[in-house]
Amino acid sequence: MKTLSYINFIISILFMVCYAYQAVYLAVSLLRKPKVYTARQLHRYGVLIAARNEETVIAQLIASVRQQSYPAELVDVFVVADNCTDRTAAVARTAGATVFERQDRYAVGKGYALKFLLHEVFERYGENTYDGFFVFDADNILDEHFIEEMNKTFDSGYEVVTSYRNSKNFGDNWISAGYSLFFLREATQLNRPRMMLGTSSCVSGTGFLFSSRIARQNGGWKHFLLTEDFEFTVDCILHDTPVGYCETAVIYDEQPTKLGQSFTQRARWIKGYLQVFSRYGFKMLRKMIVDGSFACFDMIMNNIPCLVLTCASIVFNTIMAVAGIVTRTPDMDICILSVVTGLIGSTTTLWFVGGVTCLTQRRQIHAPARKKVLGVLLFPLFVFTYAIAMVFAVFTNIEWKPIKHTVALSAEEIRNMRKK
């Protein structure tokens, strides 16, 4: 059992070594101010929304697009009602969007829906009508200045721009709070310093913008893995197109509140990361070594070491614990002490990460103070369930499944939740 304590110690050291560079990110995000961008030109945009049975929330998203401070005549909204069995298409049309309906039970997933939608837009409106395209999920709500702020970064030369991903429902429970802190940390402690240091940010699912040139170059949309957003990011980096980040463009996203649903979603993300590295890993390593691409190093280190080390730790500790119980090993206390010490260290680290995120973003978290504190306290539990999802994803087959959304609120209503 002493071997187990040595291995756990080595895994802890490897974790610290692999993620030491993110301590620099944290320092940069706390000590430096982001560059302020301005726009010389107001670009014309197409808004792309892939929706599957989203009749409850899609009208609120379209309304938030229509209520932007950006000139309405420069923004057109397109929705693909993808394999819908409800009134999503009718609700979206009533709200003012141009809607295309798609039925395909074999090519399932957001990537295929976006390919279909971009094809229809290019066919009917031409490939050069729009300067860029936004991608939103049907449950999103935009801050009133979202497009105006994104346009500033886009006009400054970034052909791909991601935004500040906030949450509609931080205060629902510990699961939604965990998601919220996770995405807020990604925005402010990863993407913000990446932008300031001149490397590439990472697209996070929704609320991003890409140029029509990239769309034409890709023949529309060509990313179909389980995490099409991360695949898109990696493809951009490999083609020397860094992803910009606009912190002043705020998007609100509904987070899951049920553990089973959350577990399935996060397992899908992990499987998607594995798919991306299976397809692009050699190219990323080559670009990192030959071209000195820090962005490739960052994308590899931000995902793979955590996945490998976490799975190795869980599997190895479980095997050793079971073996110790079966063989009645007399020094089981060493095993227990090693595991407990590791859990205490991990919990303390996650409290620090969650606490810094909550403290620095407290004005952007729209929930009562007590729920913010509770969210930080239970953040380690959220991450530990993520670790279990990692093991599940590695050893099982995962398929894309839709997430049901029910929180229909305006941006103003979300901001007022802080007072309740």
UniProtKB/TrEMBL annotation:
Domain of life: Bacteria
Transmembrane segments: 6-31, 307-327, 334-353, 373-395
InterPro entries listed in its UniProt record: Nucleotide-diphossugar_trans (IPR029044)
SUPFAM superfamilies named in the record: Nucleotide-diphospho-sugar transferases
Assigned keywords, A-Z: Glycosyltransferase, Membrane, Transferase, Transmembrane, Transmembrane helix
Presence of keyword Zinc: no
CDD domains: EpsO_like
Family: Belongs to the glycosyltransferase 2 family.
Record protein name field: Glycosyltransferase family 2 protein
Organism, scientific name: Anaeromassilibacillus senegalensis
Lineage: Bacteria, Bacillati, Bacillota, Clostridia, Eubacteriales
